[in-house]
Amino acid sequence: MSTSTRTLRIAMNGVTGRMGYRQHLMRSILPIRDSGGLLLADGSRVQLEPILVGRNEAKLQELCSLHGIAEYSTDASAVIHDPSTDIYFDAQVTSRRAEALAAAMKAGKHIYTEKPTAETLTQAVELARIGENAGVTTGVVHDKLYLPGLVKLRRLVDEGFFGRILSLRGEFGYWVFEGDGQPAQRPSWNYRAEDGGGIVVDMFCHWNYVLENILGKVESVTAKAVTHVPVRWDEDGNEYPATADDAAYGIFEMENGVVAQINSAWTVRVHRDELVEFQVDGTHGSAVAGLRNCVAQHRSHTPKPVWNPDLPVTEPFRDQWLDVPANADLDNGFKLQWEEFLRDVIAERPHRYGLLSAARGVQLAELGLRSSAEGRRLAVPEITL
């Protein structure tokens, strides 16, 4: 067994933002680094050396000092073109992402990125072409698939628990404060369409990979995007018009006849166990999965309710479902996918969730917005490079 150690230098752009910092730096890269690096099957280790990249030098200095990181830069181009940089990671706002990803791949860097990868389908497909031509490993964050609730749900699908799957219902969202009385818990650009904001752009790329990996290919979409809260207040307390959609109601028809309905909203108050839940119903059983938990009810344990509005409900419906066990210790979902991506980089093989998968997410968002604007159902064409 080998005991050697090599180092991968990872330029991390956008880690001064909430997601880039908390999930990618704090809960993924630093734990791998601090545990001695990524352990490979042959007993060797790959150590990680993050380089923080961004526009706020003071914040970058602060993060480096706080976490024992040796290097930072406000010049993304210089870091991308540095021969010692192995991987470029992007968690910037969407409007700046495509250009940086294209530059990194053309410079021969492996790339790992948040979504959406681009503002338009044309840009997203072009990124996939560049990645294929560059011969680098490309990965796109599909974090929800690695979270315990959806891991359990996927296992039920694989084991045939549902029989013939009929439908999926998804509820996502919470109340994002407007920013006047209480500070908003999301950045103000999320609510400005001109800055790349909107819940369709943000969430439909997630729903595409969730649906693809649980049910199959999305064949059509019917959506209604709405701006329920027209005025918000930014980080400096200034009032601004909310020009982006803050809620979306979607129906997705799948290649195998399954119908999926997913509501997404930053204007809803939570009355469910988790901020997102998916219910899958089939001929032999049903399950409800959140990010962490999953409960199921088999056909043989399904009660026989009778509708009677004249009598109070006495059935303890929620108590009639059984917890689906994890049967394994599941680490942070972002960290698990980082580890898989890094192993693919080291092995010089494609990552299973690459730029073409991301392009399909951008496509679904574009079609969702178009469906809403035109008031009609739209087919989802096949993307080819």
TrEMBL record:
Boundaries of every GFO/IDH/MocA-like oxidoreductase domain copy: 152-287
Leader peptide range in chain numbering: none
Annotated GO MF terms: nucleotide binding
InterPro entries noted in UniProt: Gfo/Idh/MocA-like_OxRdtase_N, GFO_IDH_MocA-like_dom, NAD(P)-bd_dom_sf
Residues in Gfo/Idh/MocA-like oxidoreductase N-terminal domain copies: 52-140
Protein name: Putative dehydrogenase
Species: Williamsia marianensis
Lineage of the species this protein comes from: Bacteria, Bacillati, Actinomycetota, Actinomycetes, Mycobacteriales
